[in-house]
Amino acid sequence: MPRKFKLDNGVEVTVRAIRPEDAEIEQAFVRSLSLKSRHLRFFNAVRELSPQMLETFTHPNYPDSWALIATVRNGASEKEIGVARYAPSKSASGAEFAVAVADDWQKRGIGTQLMKDLLAVAERAGVPRIEGVVLRQNKGMLALAEDLDFVARQDPDDPAVLIVVKNLDN
């Protein structure tokens, strides 16, 4: 069920599940991210999603994976301004999340809303634990994780990376 909220400037944002027909706005969203934002999200400067990634990203398989997008109206069409998703993690018990917000829309609470809603979906889906791989330089994501009571630990294989973890089966 889509959820709407208003930003401080009065703009109405819709948070809803991603759908297969969102491939075009998902690709446009990724293309619109700055080099820095793409690096923080993908750990490299992906210019656009491959056809396989686009298929995976727009066809989540609930309860194992899910994605929520934040959109605003752009005339008669919808524009994606943020996304949060989870998918099975490499570890046996839980899911890995990722979140990204368009550069012009950052620091307005969109990432927080997306993550709160994603955590609620994951909990309803029975995901026991959710974790994210975050570059140390991604201060915004680390602050968000701390605000949402994630615990951060050093990645044993990479000093530039922290793993943030939240147990959902409390």
Provide the CATH superfamily. Answer: Gcn5-related N-acetyltransferase (GNAT)
Major beta sheet summary: 8 strands, mixed
Radius of gyration: 15 Å
How far is the first residue's CA from the last residue's CA? 25 Å
CATH architecture assignment name? 3-Layer(aba) Sandwich
Numbering strands along the chain, what is their spatial order in the largest sheet? 1-2-3-4-5-6-8-7
Q: Find the CATH topology.
A: Aminopeptidase
Which percent band covers the strand fraction? Answer: 25-35%
Question: What does this protein structure show overall?
Answer:
The structure is a single chain. This protein has helices at residues 23-32, 35-42, 51-58, 110-124, 139-147, and strands at 3-6, 12-17, 66-74, 77-88, 95-101, 129-135, 151-154, 161-167. With 170 residues, it is α+β, with helices and mostly antiparallel strands. The chain has a single domain (3-167), classed as Aminopeptidase (3-Layer(aba) Sandwich), CATH 3.40.630.30. It has an eight-stranded mixed sheet, with helices on both faces. The model has no long low-confidence stretch (mean pLDDT 94).
Give a short synopsis of this structure.
The chain has 170 residues and is an alpha+beta fold. The chain contains five helices and eight strands.
Which features characterize this protein?
170 residues; Aminopeptidase; alpha+beta; 29% helix
Per-chain topology:
Elements: E1 3-6, E2 12-17, H1 23-32, H2 35-42, H3 51-58, E3 66-74, E4 77-88, E5 95-101, H4 110-124, E6 129-135, H5 139-147, E7 151-154, E8 161-167
Parallel strand pairs: 5-6
Antiparallel strand pairs: 1-2, 2-3, 3-4, 4-5, 6-8, 7-8
